[in-house]
Fold this protein.
Amino acid sequence: MTRLGDARVGLALVRAYGASLGRRALEVLTKMADHEDDDYDGVLVWEGQEVWVGNERTSSSVALALLRACAVSDVSDPGSRLMRYAINETGRKLVARARRERAR
């Protein structure tokens, strides 16, 4: 039986959602990957109806697509009104796959 954190589950998610993520969702995920160590540009912040990655506003549909693909993880502070999400291993694999496909 596999666990959610199992690498095989992550690879299955990459195969399932890699092709279905839109261009903008992959752009946001790539920016997050490129700035992963930066708490400003590397984190998706969602407050009310506004969603930001760094100083770029994006749509809630992009954020939802990343959540559905399990490409980001919740890193919100307890009790905060801000929902904060950071790229996770599945998201990094999606970015790597997109970069490989672009290089072809």
